[in-house]
Design goal:
This protein is mostly helical and about 325 residues long. The chain is built from 11 helices and 2 strands. It has helices at about 20-50, 55-75, 75-85, 90-125, 130-135, 135-160, 180-185, 190-225, 230-260, 265-290, 295-315; strands at about 10, 90. The chain has a two-stranded antiparallel sheet with strand order 1-2. It is globular, with a radius of gyration of 22 Å. The N and C termini lie far apart (about 80 Å). The model has no long low-confidence stretch (mean pLDDT about 85).
């Protein structure tokens, strides 16, 4: 039985020991973080302020952008601070918080992607029943269920992981607290509980993925039956961004979690973690704004208002 000592802090993986590269990492992550922050805040702002976007699809999109803000904020600022301060430390409580919040936002992200697929299925395959099925109360209930289920799911994983004794080391071979890396530090056989929870997660994710795929098969079948080309383009313009976001999310998370956990830090592990923790929140607003004409129109309107208000303010001050 290994000697177990109380772990009060963990040491995260640094991107480099060279000071210049640490500063470079800080600048790159700061740029990415600010871009993700601005992009998602713009989506939230246009959805809440433009009455043309007060529909179920954009209500879920606003929730999704809020989740993306939380998703990237859990990891990136701490990594930036460590690089700037030339440290690798994270407290035990900080690590617990990071795991809980990361799983909360990650699982809620996937829940909302599934709900958004259902919303598009009803809108295109059952348009006459859309307002009845996707009424305000139903949307709020679906969103509340997604948030509540994600909190329970995250608490399950976090509780299982941090109920284990850590005695092999306190060095995490990742730039944030990641459950597979934490399990490697455990000296107890009870880690099998968390492995069982991870297997359950895989089945749940696969179930949601199958639901999304089946929904889109029926959506595309219905779209091809639309007689007008304009109608087809409008349907595709609302579906393609969501499909791209789903593909990006599943592919990046799949790359990170389906590969074997290595015993020593590798550039591939680091790259995979950056891909699924940083890229989706950065790219999601870009994907939706590029492919969705209603979002583009709302952004132009918001920009016009800001320019006009700035000009009026300049005239008033002069």
């Amino acid at each position: 039985m290994p000697n177990c000592t109380t772990v009060t802090e963990f040491l995260l993986l640094g991107f480099s020991d060279t000071r210049q590269l640490q500063i470079l990492h800080f600048v790159i992550f700061l740029t990415v973080y600010l871009a993700a922050l601005v992009g998602n805040l713009l989506v939230i702002t246009v959805v809440t302020t433009d009455h043309h976007l007060h529909s179920p699809m954009y209500y879920f999109l606003a929730n999704f952008s809020i989740l993306d803000l939380g998703y990237i904020s859990v990891i990136v600022p701490k990594s930036m601070a460590n690089s700037l301060l030339n440290t690798r430390k994270i407290s035990y409580a900080g690590c617990v918080s990071q795991v809980f919040l990361f799983f909360l936002f990650c699982s809620a992200d996937f829940s909302f992607l599934t709900i958004m697929a259902y919303d598009r299925y009803i809108a295109i395959c059952k348009p006459l029943h859309y307002e009845i099925i996707m009424n305000r109360r139903a949307c709020v209930q679906m969103a509340a269920c997604a948030w509540a289920a994600s909190v329970i799911y995250s608490a399950l994983h976090t509780g299982n992981t941090f109920s284990l004794p850590f005695c092999h080391s306190n060095i995490i071979n990742q730039f944030f607290c990641e459950i597979p890396q934490l399990l490697k530090l455990s000296c107890s056989d009870t880690y099998r509980r968390e492995l069982a929870a991870i297997l359950l997660s895989i089945f749940l994710v696969l179930g949601c993925f199958v639901f999304i795929v089946v929904s889109y098969v029926q959506i595309f079948t219905a779209v091809w039956r639309i007689p007008s080309e304009q109608g087809q383009q409008k349907a595709f313009s609302t579906c393609i961004p969501h499909l791209l976001v789903v593909s990006l999310f599943i592919s990046t998370v799949g790359i990170a979690y389906l590969k074997p956990v290595s015993d020593s830090p590798s550039p591939l592990d680091l790259l995979a973690a950056v891909l699924y923790s940083v890229v989706p929140p950065l790219m999601n607003p870009v994907i939706y704004s590029m492919r969705n004409k209603e979002i583009q129109a709302a952004l132009r309107k918001l920009l016009h208002k800001l320019i006009c208000s700035r000009n009026n303010m300049s005239i008033f001050l002069s």
